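PT: before anyone asks, these are the final sequences, not the draft ones from last week. 240 residues across everything. Please model them as a single complex and drop the result in this thread when it's through.
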Amino acid sequence: MARVALVTGGTRGIGLAISLALKEQGRTVIANYANNDEAAAAFKAEHGIDVAKFNVASFEDCEKGIAKVVEEHGKIEILVNNAGITRDGTLVKMRRDMWDAVIDTNLGSCYNTSKLTFEGMRDAKFGRIVNIGSLNGQAGQYGQVNYAAAKSGIHGFTKALALEGARFGITVNALAPGYVDTEMVRAVPAEVLKKIVAKIPVGRIGHAEDIARGVAFLTSEDAGFITGSTISINGGMFMY
Ligand code: CAA
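LR: through. Structure below.
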């Protein structure tokens, strides 16, 4: 039977490409989303992938949402923690709610979803967890103390959980995308973005599919010896 894969933030941007790549691989994919019902309905209609609405920043929401996914589709054996937001601003201008929202959504979500799926993977003696980090969690970025802290936290979370999962056949890895052509990156002021893109050694911004291919590789059956690692997919912008 096809393995069940949950992709958080899986109906738009990089998450959408990941959902499609995992479906292509023969997985039963469930794409989670938090707010945008219209985009989720369009995604489901176009791609025939089921969607699950719950807020990954809330443990209670995840409990209900994941229980429903398991009831309807079976045990989750592949988890992609992709959901993420930005609330950019220099520290001086950053309000506490901007800090909390990014930490809870981008990092707290990894705790919530992993906590609620890990035992199922352990019982199955198979699991694949891929956490989407960021170039900006590795290198830092002006105006992103919240985002860089959360993404950097993801890299530590990944290594620690990889140690806990190793003897149960559960691999836990991270991917660190650079600048990818998504709504999130398009929200960066045009003149700032132009300067950033000019610094990408391969000479172009990334595509969501560049990241999705990495996730498909890390979640494949063949990737069982890769755990606790971070694959940087950033066009050579930062070599770590
Ligand atoms: N390094 C040094 N100085 C910088 C700088 C940088 N990278 N960026 C801006 N500054 C300076 C400006 O030159 C300016 O200096 P002066 O006052 O002397 O002119 C000062 O900082 C203030 O800059 P702004 O006027 O731009 O300040 P702002 O508060 O209006 O905006 C900002 C600040 C929100 C951080 C804005 O610059 C911005 O959006 N930057 C881009 C942030 C970014 O890259 N976000 C990534 C989003 S995509 C993503 O996160 C996905 C991923 O994983 C890669």
